[in-house]
Amino acid sequence: MTSERNTDIEIRLLIEAIYLKYSYDFRNYSGASIKRRILHALRQFDCLTVSALQERVLHDPGMFMQLLQFLTIPVSEMFRDPSHFLALRNEVVPLLRTWPSIKIWVAGCSTGEEVYSMAILLREEGLLERTILYATDINPHSLDKAKQGIYSMQSMREYEENYRLAGGRRDFAEYYTAAYGNAIMDSSLRDNVTFADHSLATDSVFSETQLVSCRNVLIYFNKELQDRALGLFHESLCHRGFLVLGSKESVDFSAYSERFEPLVKPERIYRKS
Amino acid sequence: MNGVRAVVIGASAGGVAALFEVLGALPPAFSLPVLCVLHLPDDRHSQLAEVLQRRLHRPVREACDKERISAGQVYVAGPSYHLSVEHDLTLSLSQEAPVHFSRPAIDFLFISAADAYGDGLLGVLLTGANEDGAKGLAYIKNNGGRTIVQDPRDAQVALMPEAALALHQPDHILTLSGIGQLLATLETRAC
């Protein structure tokens, strides 16, 4: 029990050290998950204690970049929760169409699957040409992968089914070129995408938007940080703009529950009230 | 078993029937929170909470992210997300990689709940064809909590209880009806 208490203290110190040295702020992440990820990293780096890991991270920026790959969770899919994308297509797109130009922020875009899904949907609805997409994340490696748009063919075969269920209108294979077991996304999908390093924990709003998509990111934040992120989205969104969240996320337990109204509640699609 | 503040239950193959029997034995006024992870197919729309609630006539719901744990409530983890307990006794969901091919993982619930409740936690591991939960149950014990393993001879599938027994000596090895009876006495003794 003493060693567990020590571990909890060490984890707090490590997170504080990372913030002071590298300005990455994990202080308000959900504790249980971040603890698991740090302990997992500990084993990968052959460190006996979190303090030993902290020493290496503090003195070696390269080591921090490696640790960052453990602290962020690059779990994503294209058209994840197909019914969500179907609802976007049927309920949101007709309203989105009424703006002459559209700005969309995909916050916490990870390795880009959500961005390409959104771009494909917009292209099929004839809106991609007049849309600017901002795709942001705190992990530069994930952003690089997102920019490259290369995914394994194995995962693309899974996404194909998602795409179909999400109301996709074409042959999914039209959006990529297959080579050596990988799929390279059609680069024109990202002509209007700006990829940028942005932290929901420390940065501020950079543009007015009509839609913010932030899926399976808020679950890793505690309530305080969730409120901060929702505050940024609220500030960024124009009058009656749209907020879309992950299938287990909601504004219900937040300070912003009154400032967003559900448009398609089961699909976590909200509108600024 | 004085001082139990929460109960966590894990099960896999054969788990639905086992959960019915254990939870069905609880008195209507049972006021401890009960958190369950049952391995399920990776289907977004699980009916487990609704089915349990209808059959058990007690409040059961799928655990939500950032929800505060309330007394007398049974929570079940939904599919595709891990369920954890935070130090402030709220629930959190996450999508880290599956453990023993399972998301939700019993180990994640048990370990995080042990961190949050310490010696106030009671862990129960039931039938299953998987080693998930064994590590978590031992962790509960090491953190001062109490543990119960379903008697492998009573389990529909013995692998999960056997894996737990290989890792640590629990406080009780009981049949499903024994577990139900013991849980039912918890509160009267705690008061």
From TrEMBL, chain A:
<dbReference type="InterPro" id="IPR029063">
    <property type="entry name" value="SAM-dependent_MTases_sf"/>
</dbReference>
<dbReference type="InterPro" id="IPR000780">
    <property type="entry name" value="CheR_MeTrfase"/>
</dbReference>
<dbReference type="Pfam" id="PF03705">
    <property type="entry name" value="CheR_N"/>
</dbReference>
<feature type="domain" description="CheR-type methyltransferase">
    <location>
        <begin position="1"/>
        <end position="261"/>
    </location>
</feature>
<dbReference type="InterPro" id="IPR022641">
    <property type="entry name" value="CheR_N"/>
</dbReference>
<dbReference type="InterPro" id="IPR050903">
    <property type="entry name" value="Bact_Chemotaxis_MeTrfase"/>
</dbReference>
<dbReference type="Pfam" id="PF01739">
    <property type="entry name" value="CheR"/>
</dbReference>
<dbReference type="InterPro" id="IPR022642">
    <property type="entry name" value="CheR_C"/>
</dbReference>
<protein>
    <submittedName>
        <fullName>Protein-glutamate O-methyltransferase CheR</fullName>
    </submittedName>
</protein>
TrEMBL record, chain B:
<dbReference type="Pfam" id="PF01339">
    <property type="entry name" value="CheB_methylest"/>
</dbReference>
<keyword id="KW-0378">Hydrolase</keyword>
<dbReference type="InterPro" id="IPR035909">
    <property type="entry name" value="CheB_C"/>
</dbReference>
<feature type="active site">
    <location>
        <position position="12"/>
    </location>
</feature>
<dbReference type="InterPro" id="IPR000673">
    <property type="entry name" value="Sig_transdc_resp-reg_Me-estase"/>
</dbReference>
<feature type="active site">
    <location>
        <position position="39"/>
    </location>
</feature>
<feature type="active site">
    <location>
        <position position="132"/>
    </location>
</feature>
<keyword id="KW-0145">Chemotaxis</keyword>
<protein>
    <recommendedName>
        <fullName>protein-glutamate methylesterase</fullName>
        <ecNumber>3.1.1.61</ecNumber>
    </recommendedName>
</protein>
<feature type="domain" description="CheB-type methylesterase">
    <location>
        <begin position="1"/>
        <end position="183"/>
    </location>
</feature>
